Amino acid sequence: MPTYRFQALNAKGATISGTLQAAGEREAARALDERGLAVIALDPATGSAGAGGRRQRVSRLRAQDIIVAFHELATMLQSGVALAEAVASQARSAHHPRIVAAFSTISTALRRGQSFSDALAGTDLPLPGYFGILVRAGEQSGLLAQALADGVAQLEYDHQVRGEIRQALTYPAVLVAAGLG
């Protein structure tokens, strides 16, 4: 049976960490919930290396990865899912490891009573400044889901424009290189 490392908050708000054995991650989370603990982090306890003796190389975080993760979060919030539950769901998702770590950090901060915008600012995600401002405005107005959707739409537009500029500059760069050659 696999072993899982966990961090959780007890009823008094104290952080508890340890390990437990369970058939799967969901069963481990259920077991902790039955103990009255709020899960902050739950990871498989592995040895010093992965299955092949080496850890898998982590790819570079792309703008599209961030867009997809926040689009999913905005969709969940628009569907009526509670913020803490939606963020925790993203923390357990199959996104890029940096995004999963960021959502885990946000989830922990939310459980400790911090606002979403402050928790988001405390992550290392490369988000433009306007995104944090939109999130803060959405929190204060009670329209966080719409603010996130608007922020994601702007992120998508920025990504599209960057791609078009890169594409437009490719041909002149080839001509300059050929001229120099």
Report on this structure.
With 181 residues, the protein is mainly α. It is built from seven helices and three strands; from the N terminus they run E-E-H-E-H-H-H-H-H-H. The protein has a three-stranded antiparallel β-sheet. The protein is globular. The protein starts with a strand and ends with a helix. About 4% of the residues have low confidence.
List keywords for this structure.
181 residues, mainly alpha, globular, 3 strands
User: If you compute it from the alpha carbons, what radius of gyration comes out, rounded to the nearest whole angstrom?
Assistant: 20 Å
Give the percentage of residues in beta strands: 5-15%
Shape: globular
| Uncertain spans | 48-55
- Major pleated sheet: 3 strands, antiparallel
What is the straight-line distance between the termini? Answer: 63 Å
| Proportion in helices | 55-70%
Number of helices: 7
The average pLDDT value, as a whole number, equals 87
List the helices and strands and how they pair.
Layout: E1 3-9, E2 15-21, H1 25-34, E3 38-44, H2 63-78, H3 83-91, H4 97-111, H5 116-121, H6 129-141, H7 144-180
Antiparallel strand pairs: 1-2, 1-3
